[in-house]
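[Automated response] Your request has been received and processed.

Submitted sequence:
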Amino acid sequence: MKLLFFAKCVLVAVLVPGALLAQPRKAAPARPKPVVMASALLRSGPMVGYSEMREVALWVQTTGPATAQIEYWDKEKPAVKWRTAPVATKAASAHTAHLLADQVQPGRRYAYALYLNGQRVARPYPLEFQSQAQWQWQQDPPDFKFAMGSCVYINETPYDRAGPAYGGDYGIFTSINAQQPDFMLWMGDNTYLRPADWNTRTGIYHRYSHSRALPEMQPLLARTHNYAIWDDHDFGPNDSDRSYVGKATTLEAFKDFWANPNYGQEAGQGIGGTFEWADVQVFLLDDRWFRAPNGYNQKEGAYLGPAQLNWLLDALTASRATFKLIAVGGQVLNPAKVFENYSNYEQERATLLQGIAARNISGVVFLDGDRHFTELTKLERPGTYPLYDFTCSPLTSGVATSAGNEANTGRVAGSLVLERNFAVVAVSGPLAARQLRISVLNKAGQPLWERTIAAAELK
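Generated structure:
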C-alpha cells in the first residue's frame, strides 16, 4: 500500500502544471550545417560539346567537390523532361564533369538546366543544344554554319609577359555568340600556358581553368556546340614538340576541358579525331604530339607523324562528305618557310598533297590558325582542282602586324586581316549544288571579307 501511494504521488507530481523539475530535459536542437548555394559552386560552363543524332555531350566545372546533373527537354514538348546521370566532380580533374544527354532524337532542339548538389543553377542567358538531323537517303542535308578562330590569350597579371597586356577585346566572344553558329571550332592556342605552368600539373590545370572561366565566353559555351584542336601554347611551351615532358598531362587536361567525340587513333596518342556535321566531315589533327623538334632535320622530319598521316589519307579516302575540312594548328599551303609553317617539313607535306591527288580525293579545304593574322591561300594543281587553306587568327591575343611582308605567293588578294577577328563558315544548298561561304568578321562582328567556294570547284 505504501508503494502504491508513493507511485500515485509521483504521477501527480508529473501531471501537475509547474512541476518542471519532474520532467526530463530535452536535448538542444542540432544547429543546421551551412548550405553552399549552388551558384557559388559553379566555376565555368555549362558548355555544350559534341552533337550526334542520339546523344549530346555537356560539360561543367565547379569550384569544389559537387554532384552535377543536367535536366533537358524538347523545346516543342517541354512537359517531358530527362536527366543525365549524376557525375561527381573531383579534384583530380579540376572538378570538371562530362555529362551525356542520351535520350535525344534526331534533328531536335532542346533547352536544359544545370543542377549542382540537387539545386538548380540559374544562368542569365539561354541554355540550349541540338541533335543532328537524320537526312541521309531521305532529303537534302540541312544548311548550317559554324564559327572558328584561334589564339585566346586571357590576361593574368602575376604570370603574364612583361609590357602592355597581350590579351584583350574579350567582347569578341559576344560577337561570335550573336551570330548563333551551330558549332564553334577552336583552332588551337585556346589557352596560353605560361612559364609558371609548363612543368607542373598544378600550373597546367590552373591555366586551363583560368581561361575557361572568362565571363564573356560563358553564353557562347552554353548554347553552341564546341569542338577543339590544340597547338603549341595549349600543348606546352612555345614551339613545343614530341619531346615535351609534360604532354601526357596536357593531353589529360585537354580531354578534361573539351568534349570532342574521340581522341587519337590509339589510346593516349594525342588529340586527333574526326566528326561529321550534315554532309561535312571535319578532321581534327594534332600537329604537336608526333612533331619532330624544329630545326633538327626539319626537311625530313615529322609534323603529323607517319601513323596520323596514314590514318588521315585513309579517312579522307573513305569519306563521302561533300566538304572534307582538315583542321590543323599551323598553316599548310603557305609556301613561305617561316616560323612553323608546314612548308618547312618538305617531305611529309609533299606526301600529304601527293596522296590527296593520287587518291583523287574531292572537297578538301584546310583550316588553321596559329599565325596571329588571317588570310586565304590558294594552291593551283595542274590537272585537278585547286586547294584552299583558310587561316583565322587571333581571337584575343596579339596581332602579327608584319605579316604583309611574308612571301606567301598563294595569298588570295584582299584576304589578309591584321586585327583581332573570327570567321563564320556557312554550308548551304541542295546536295547536288552545295557551297561553302567563308565570312571574316572583326571583334565587333562587322564583316571584313567574304568568299564562296562551290563544291563543284573541288572535284
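Summary generated for your ticket: The chain has nine helices and 21 strands. The chain has two domains: 41-130, 144-458.
If you did not submit this request, please reply to this message.
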